[in-house]
Amino acid sequence: LRTHFGQRAVVEEILDPMRSRVRVTAPTEQLLARGLAGWAEYLEVVEPVSLRAELRRLGEVLVARNAHDG
Questions:
Q1: pTM value?
Q2: For the chain, percent of residues with pLDDT exceeding 90
């Protein structure tokens, strides 16, 4: 995340050797969601709920647009 977000990603707490709590900021929540979406298999967004909803919406759009083999 630090490579992608730079100074906008701040480690707040080391939870264990494989997990950390990181605060990431962006100019807008939509931009933040788009930036985090590519990391979906590696992270869990804890808050805010509105960001989780935007990530879910983006995921639904991706599934809908790529669901067919054609």
A1: 0.85
A2: 87
